[in-house]
Amino acid sequence: MSECCSKSEGETLVFTCAGAAYSGQVANRAGLELMKDGAGALFCAAAVAANRPDKVDRARKAARRVVIDGCDDDCARHILESAGLAVDVHVDVTSLGIEKNPETPHMLVDAKRVADAIHDRLQA
Fold first, then answer.
1. Partner residues linked to 91 by β-bridges
2. In b/e form, how buried is each residue of 93-122, taking b as 16+ CB within 10 angstroms?
3. What SS3 state is found at 65?
4. DSSP state of 81
5. How many CB atoms lie within 10 A of CB 7?
6. Cα gap 26→80, rounded to integer Å
7. For residues 67 and 81, what is the distance between their CA atoms, to the nearest angstrom?
8. Strand order in the sheet with 12-16
9. Is 60 exposed, middle or buried (0-12, 13-18, 19+ CB in 10 A)?
10. φ, ψ dihedrals at 19, nearest 5°
């Protein structure tokens, strides 16, 4: 089984928006940064929405669930909450001043800003 899908209790799982807007892509990129930094394992919100038993079970066993949404629709957060899963850390990237569709995108800079905000919240 691949690393993304192996089961491990007590872990931090990161669920991201991967919406069509730039801000959704920033959310997903920030999740990748958090995974690269060792802050958590990127996990599939769509699998939870599809009620895949093994995925919902792993999400339920997680010590912490981090959700990064691309806008204030909060789709990823709603997916977890609809499955009865508490969200421990939630960030809507537009609340950090990142526009949904900016004239001049700065993907790496914006994703790092989101990842840094989540690191701060995880350590609080």
1. 68
2. bbeeebbbeeeeeeeeebbebbbebbeeee
3. strand
4. H
5. 11
6. 20
7. 11
8. 41-43, 12-16, 64-69, 89-92
9. middle
10. -65, 170
Q: From CA 59, how far away is CA 7, in angstroms rounded? A: 9
Q: Tokens for 7, please give them.
A: 């089961």
Give residue 74's identity as a one-letter amino acid code: D
Residues 26, 75: Cα–Cα separation, whole Å: 15
Per-residue tens of pLDDT for the chain, all 124 residues = 444 555 556 899 999 998 899 999 999 999 999 999 999 999 999 999 999 999 999 999 999 999 999 999 999 999 999 999 999 999 999 999 999 999 999 999 999 999 999 999 999 8
